[in-house]
Design a protein that fits this description.
136 residues; alpha+beta; GMP Synthetase, Chain A, domain 3; 23% strand
Length: 136
């Protein structure tokens, strides 16, 4: 249940905003929290299913409003799951439950942003028909 957000935890602004870029900016930490929250859900759900998850990596891309306070307007998550005997239906079910029911960070960000996601299992994109509304 442990997720790593870099080698150290230091927040910093980019050089163009007066910082040195020594760590993620505050808005980047929001995306880190999103990935960590939903990732922990997915791992826990698959454990309850007794599904053989070998690895999980989540990529996050986001767009922000041009006007201040420059909130996130669109966020896309790409879940990379691996496991020799992990079934596509298990992977999709775990991600969908996290996205639609369990992750409070998802629930909070949905107030301002359109959230979408993809699920890849062992490097292959799971067909869109298995997604319960998760893809654009």
């Amino acid at each position: 249940m442990q997720f790593r957000a870099g080698e150290r935890w230091v927040m910093d602004a980019s050089p163009e905003h007066g910082g040195s870029g020594a760590g993620p900016a505050p808005m980047e930490t929001v995306l880190i929290a999103l990935a960590g929250c939903t990732g922990m859900d997915v791992v826990a759900i698959l454990r309850k299913m007794r599904a053989p998850l070998a690895g999980l990596r989540i990529e996050v891309e986001a767009e922000r409003a041009t006007d201040h306070p420059r909130v996130f307007t669109a966020i896309h998550l790409r879940y990379h799951l691996s496991g020799e005997d992990l079934k596509p239906e298990q992977a999709v079910r775990a991600v969908t439950l996290s996205q639609e029911r369990y992750c409070p960070v998802v629930g909070m960000l949905r107030a301002t942003a359109r959230l979408t996601y993809d699920v890849l299992l062992n490097g292959s994109l799971i067909p869109l028909g298995l997604h319960a509304g998760g893809n654009p």
